């Protein structure tokens, strides 16, 4: 039985640039488990117009995450209870322990995470390093394939072309619904996307970005 | 939150003068600032649950506002504040939002610790 494990530090990481791929898995009957490290307590986006405060944001984002999971067909969500921006300062062995436990429990065939050192946000790299570390503790034959999301400007230059490019057109509406579910984080972005879709000069590029999801396999 | 009412915040600052408080102070330009070429680098600093006591607390400016807390051994300073509320738990939440509604600075005081 195939199983996908996604390991990301923030609510919305599973959606932006990845929701289509996740939706394709669950549509095909492949269960997806999501480990979410923090509640994105320190997000800068508060909705547009803003409706969250620094103190209400974690509760709002947890709800948004649960809604997005429901939309994407993620039935197993596990929260690590870490705090935004602090992941890289946690004990990496202890983080890897927690991920390893889930790896051994689920024996996933694929693990989705950021590509270490190409996550831009320090939390992305902190958790992806811990994830790779946990995978490497497994015997070679049992290691899942790691689908790394590289979001740095120089990703292609540094890593070459992506190993996997998923056309997610058939689940695009699901992806957009998941993006909208992360309302506090996506309202400003969705406004821009919808504006760009009306602009003949920008339409194609925006559609390509939405429809094509790229992953680099991290070799262990 | 709503647009800052200077007198209302000053009243709270006066009320809490001299008593132990918890401070959340934060400023950020977003983790993706450099990626989006908004600025050469991402900058953020925050303190959560700093224990403080001030002898003089003042809000200044005509909007965006500034707050300064003079303590026995130092200062707390925040600039660029635009919105505020007293939340349901009696905490003073003040923030500065940019033109896109994104949080640029947060200044919060509470008589009890902020949740971790
Ligand atoms: Zn993130």
UniProtKB/TrEMBL annotation, chain A:
What Gene Ontology molecular function terms does this protein carry? hydrolase activity, acting on carbon-nitrogen (but not peptide) bonds, in linear amides
Output the InterPro entries linked to this UniProt entry.
Answer: BshB2, GlcNAc_PI_deacetylase-related, LmbE-like_dom_sf
What Pfam families would the database entry show?
PIG-L
Query: Where would you find the membrane-spanning parts of this chain?
Result: none
Q: Which domain of life is it from?
A: Bacteria
UniProt name for this protein? Bacillithiol biosynthesis deacetylase BshB2
From TrEMBL, chain B:
- On the tree of life, the source organism's domain of life is Bacteria
InterPro entries (UniProt xref): DUF1806 (IPR014934), YojF_sf (IPR036492)
Q: Kindly name one Pfam family recorded for this protein.
A: DUF1806
> What is this protein's name?
DUF1806 domain-containing protein
- Which organism is the protein's source? Sulfoacidibacillus thermotolerans (Acidibacillus sulfuroxidans)
């Amino acid at each position: 039985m195939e199983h996908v494990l996604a390991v990301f530090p923030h609510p919305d990481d599973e959606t932006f640039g990845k929701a289509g791929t996740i939706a394709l898995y669950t549509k095909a009957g492949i269960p997806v488990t999501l480990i979410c490290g923090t509640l994105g307590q320190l997000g800068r986006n508060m909705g547009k117009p803003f409706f969250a405060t620094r103190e209400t944001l974690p509760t709002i984002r947890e709800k948004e995450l649960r809604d997005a999971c429901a939309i994407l067909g993620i039935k197993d969500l596990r929260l690590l209870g870490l705090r935004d921006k602090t992941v890289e300062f946690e004990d990496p062995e202890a983080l890897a322990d927690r991920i390893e436990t889930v790896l051994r429990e689920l024996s996933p065939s694929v693990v989705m995470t950021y590509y270490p050192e190409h996550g831009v946000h320090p939390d992305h790299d902190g958790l992806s390093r811990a994830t790779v570390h946990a995978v490497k503790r497994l015997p070679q034959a049992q290691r899942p394939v790691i689908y790394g999301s590289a979001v740095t400007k120089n990703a292609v230059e540094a890593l070459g072309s992506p190993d996997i490019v998923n056309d997610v057109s058939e689940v695009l509406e699901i992806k957009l619904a998941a993006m909208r579910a992360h309302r506090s984080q996506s309202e400003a972005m969705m406004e821009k996307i919808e504006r760009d879709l009306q602009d003949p000069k920008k339409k194609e590029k925006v559609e390509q970005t939405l429809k094509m999801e790229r992953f680099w396999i991290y070799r262990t | 939150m709503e647009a800052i009412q200077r007198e209302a915040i000053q009243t709270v600052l006066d009320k809490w003068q001299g008593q132990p408080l918890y401070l959340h102070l934060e400023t950020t330009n977003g983790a993706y600032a450099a990626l989006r070429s908004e600025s050469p680098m991402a900058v953020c600093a925050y303190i959560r649950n700093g224990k403080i006591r001030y002898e003089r607390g003042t809000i200044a400016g005509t909007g965006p506002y500034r707050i300064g807390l003079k303590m026995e051994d130092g200062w707390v300073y925040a600039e660029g504040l635009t919105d505020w509320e007293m939340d349901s738990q009696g905490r003073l939440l003040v923030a500065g939002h940019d033109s896109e509604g994104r949080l640029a600075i947060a200044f919060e005081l509470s008589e009890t610790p902020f949740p971790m």
